[in-house]
Design goal:
The chain is of the alpha/beta class. The chain has one domain: 3-Layer(aba) Sandwich (Protocatechuate 4,5-dioxygenase, Chain B). Helices cover 39% and strands 18% of the residues. Strands 2, 3, 4, 7, 8, 9, 10, 11 and 12 form a nine-stranded mixed sheet that branches. The model has no long low-confidence stretch (mean pLDDT 94).
Length: 283
């Protein structure tokens, strides 16, 4: 059996079962959700910055499933999807088996390339997959930032129905990357910059996600630089589309929002560079 080992260095997420459990138990105590969503989206920064927001996305998902399919990004438009081809993945809570039958069927349909690279967009979610879905199998994908990812999401629904899989899908993206670290400072710095990211740039992307329009999501991500992995959002949206009538639009709900500037940035110094984070679900 081939095992995909942990590749991110310590600091991205807790490294022991006890530390992961302590972190997530706090989020669970502070939040309630009925766990009925078929698809969700979560940020993928280090847990100290966005872990609690990501956990809100996981809490929204229905639990009694066979497989959890995580869609990451960091792939430009025009590229083929990437799929991990190992039989299991390592996490601090134990290894997660991969749904090999689903992987083969979907990989052939989507013409995927093997994902041989270290990347946080999927790996940072895996301890939560193991924690919230201890009996489920995994599928690891990364989608490009173009409209083909919306169609690929719909194909996930079709293949799941064909082989009889009950699953949930989690897309993985951060929002605006602002400041000198990212070469993007259209509003200067300080409180003005943070307010613009929060109330304009990220707000416009959130509105596009709520609209359910794949083109609007891509336009905002590309023109406003307000999402680093828009293909992951489109994949989750396409999968959610399979659960509504053909003429219907999946309804996205914003579950939580924040930035790496901190919970109360107005009370202190605004960092030069920061990132926006949002958790969404489709019910």
């Amino acid at each position: 059996m081939s095992l995909r080992k942990i590749r991110l260095p310590p600091g991205w997420y807790p490294q022991t079962t006890e530390a992961v459990s302590r972190f997530l138990e706090k989020t669970i105590r502070e939040n309630r959700d009925d766990g009925t969503a078929s698809a969700a989206a979560a940020p993928h920064a280090g847990w100290r910055y966005s872990g609690a927001i990501a956990a809100r996305a996981f809490l929204s998902l229905k639990r009694d499933v066979d497989t959890v399919l995580v869609i990451g990004g960091h792939i430009p438009g025009g590229m083929r999807p990437l799929m991990a081809e190992e039989d299991a993945v390592e996490t601090p809570l134990g290894d997660i088996p991969v749904d090999t039958e689903f992987r083969i069927a979907l990989g052939q349909s989507l013409d995927c390339l093997p994902d041989q690279y270290a990347d946080n967009t999927v790996e940072v979610q895996l301890p939560m997959v193991r924690y919230f879905f201890p009996a489920a199998k995994l599928l690891w994908l990364r989608f490009p930032a173009d409209e083909s990812s919306f169609e690929s999401g719909k194909e996930i629904t079709r293949i799941a129905e064909k082989i009889g899989r009950n699953l949930v899908v989690l897309g993985s993206t951060d929002l605006t990357h602002y400041g000198n670290n990212y070469g993007y400072s259209p509003q200067g710095g300080g409180k003005k910059a943070l307010a613009w990211v929060r109330d304009v740039n990220d707000a416009n992307f959130i509105a596009a996600v709520k609209s359910g329009d794949p083109r609007a999501i891509l336009d905002r991500a590309e023109k406003d630089r307000s999402a680093c992995s828009a293909g992951a959002i489109l994949g989750a949206l396409g999968f959610a589309k399979g659960f509504v009538q053909e003429s219907g639009v999946p309804k996205a709900e914003l579950l939580a929002y924040g930035t790496s500037a901190g919970e109360n940035p107005e009370e202190g110094e605004i960092p030069d560079s920061f990132v926006g984070y949002g958790a969404f679900c489709w019910r």
